[in-house]
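Hey L., structure's done. Input below.
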Amino acid sequence: MPDVGVDHDSTGAEQLSASQGRGTCHNCPMPVNTRCVAVLAGTALLGIGLDQATKALMVATREGKPPVRLIGRALTIHVSRNSGSAFSFAPAATVLFTCVAVAVAVLIVTRVHRLRSTGWAVALGLLLAGAVGNLCDRLMRAPGIGRGAVVDFIDLQHFADFNIADSCLTCGAVLAVLLALRGAPMTQRSRDYAGPEPARRAHL
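Output:
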C-alpha cells in the first residue's frame, strides 16, 4: 500500500513554497515617493518664482538705466537681453534652446514618479527651475513666441551676464555630478520592487 502521508507532506511543502514565491512581484507598480515629488516640486516652484519675480522687478526698475555697482566692480546689476542659452552662449540658436528646454522639462516631469533620492529630487528640481525659468522668457518676451530674449541682470566681473534660472541650472548640474560620482541611485527599477508582502494563511 503506498505511503499516502509522504505525498501529503510533499504537496503541503510545494504549496507553502509557491505561496512564499508569490510574495515577490517583479511586475508590480512601484508606489510614488511623495517626499521626493514634494521636494522636486517645491524646489522647482521656488526657483521659477524667484527667477520670474527678479526678472520682472529688474525690467520694471532698471532696464535702460545705468548699471548699479553693489560690490565694487565684482558685482553689478545691469539688465540685458540674451537670445542665446545660459550665460549668453550661442545667441543665434534661440529656437533650438527653446526646444531643448521643453524636452528637459518634459523628461523630468515624466520621470518624477520613479525618484527614490531626496538629493536627486533637489538636483532635478533646480534643473527644472532653470529650464522653465528661461523657457518662460522665450515664450512670452519679444521678439516672439519661441524666440524671446532672456532677461539677464547679474554681472560679475570677467564673467558673462546671467540670472536666477542660470544659477539654478548650474547648481543643479553640479549637484547631479556630485551625486553621480558618489554612486547615489536616482530611481528604483520596477523589477527590483518586491511589492507588498501577502498575508500568511493559517494552517490547521
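The helical segments are 4-21, 34-61, 94-111, 118-140, 164-182. The CA atoms of residues 102 and 135 lie 7 Å apart.

-- N.
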